[in-house]
Amino acid sequence: MYYIDPHIHMVSRTTDDYETLAKMGCVAVSEPAFWAGYDRGSVDGFRDYFEQLTAFEPKRAGWYGIQHFTWLCINAKEAENVALSREVIAMIPEFLDRPGVLGIGEIGLNKNTRNEATVFLEHIDLAVKTNEQILIHTPHLEDKYQGTRMILDMLTGDGRLQRDRVLVDHVEEHTVGLVLDQGFWAGMTLYPVSKCTPQRACDMVEIYGPERLLVNSAGDWGPSKPTAVPDFIMEMRKRGHAESLIRRVVYENPLKFFGQSRGFRFNSPLDA
Length: 272
Ligand SMILES: [Zn+2]
Description:
Layout: E1 3-5, H1 15-23, E2 26-32, H2 43-62, E3 67-72, H3 82-91, E4 101-108, H4 114-130, E5 133-137, H5 144-156, E6 166-168, H6 176-181, E7 185-189, H7 198-208, E8 213-216, H8 228-238, H9 243-258
Parallel strand pairs: 1-2, 2-3, 3-4, 4-5, 5-6, 6-7, 7-8
The protein binds zinc ion (ZN).
Zinc ion binds next to loops.
């Protein structure tokens, strides 16, 4: 089955991973900007990173027949440095009209601090003013519930936002309902050690239905599995779900969400 991984950090993966994804039916990936494993020292570090995300990484994906899309921001961890964050936010528009850029992300909260919230709101303001979509990271484990509540309060407090152009990622059982009820898209991240498993993601599709739900691997340089979306497909098949339902979650839903971005041009493998 063709599928799309809507949240995967390919800069931290090998070309072998691209080849494996392609063999498993992956036709497109979307890569949000994230933490590099160290705090970057200046705005130029981000400019170089955005260059990599928008110029080289799509080329590398293309070698395996995979289309590559991206999101730009300064992540929540480095947002503690508000002065640097403001320099990055002012620089982002240099890249927004490049092919394959889908919007602002992954912004969000990490430790739910005041500085993180300040930078989150300034990203939202940029997204609204530039008419970009938004992809949001929610915090880990013990900080997730409170952080998700804070994020939803900030989002719903801005009357300018179009909620169906915002994706709130890394939802779990205790946050998915909050996100969907408010009209946002929700992403389930399949991780070997935390977040969600393929089984729990299937449970959530069974409980909430496929509307505005996405599944991703978040594959990065930590313990993660870039082929987690095919694991979800297998689990859905084992449970006897229709292929049309599975395809809706792993293929049609990402297309519908991404399709609202002006930077999204998709060459459908079905047209080939
Ligand atoms: Zn991520």
